[in-house]
Structures are given as C-alpha cells and as structure tokens.
Amino acid sequence: MHGRSLERHATRFKELTMSWTTPEVKEICVGMEINDYMPAEF
C-alpha cells in the first residue's frame, strides 16, 4: 500500500475500532431465590 491507499486503510481501521454500539440489557426471570450472602470482608 502506498500513500493515499495506506491513509484510507488507516482511516477505515480507526472507524471500525472506534465504533460503539450500546449493549442491549434484558432482564430474564429464572425463578431462583437467594438463600445466603457472602460476608463483605470476603
């Protein structure tokens, strides 16, 4: 790659690495209960 071709490649690479999509959060009911907790010092 020479000159402009290298610049275009670097620009495209930066666009791909810097892009971000917001994660989608889903709550799933699994029917479990908490019956014990770990101590804070653990």
TrEMBL record:
This protein's record includes keyword Cytoplasm: no
This protein's pathway: Cofactor biosynthesis; pyrroloquinoline quinone biosynthesis
Family statement drawn from the similarity comment of this UniProt entry: Belongs to the PqqA family.
Species annotation: Salinicola endophyticus
Name this polypeptide is given: Coenzyme PQQ synthesis protein A
Signal peptide interval: none
Biological processes, Gene Ontology terms: pyrroloquinoline quinone biosynthetic process
Pfam families: PqqA
Function: Required for coenzyme pyrroloquinoline quinone (PQQ) biosynthesis. PQQ is probably formed by cross-linking a specific glutamate to a specific tyrosine residue and excising these residues from the peptide.
UniProt xrefs under InterPro entries: PQQ_synth_PqqA
Presence of the UniProt keyword Ligase in the record: no
Coiled-coil zones: none
Keyword tags: PQQ biosynthesis
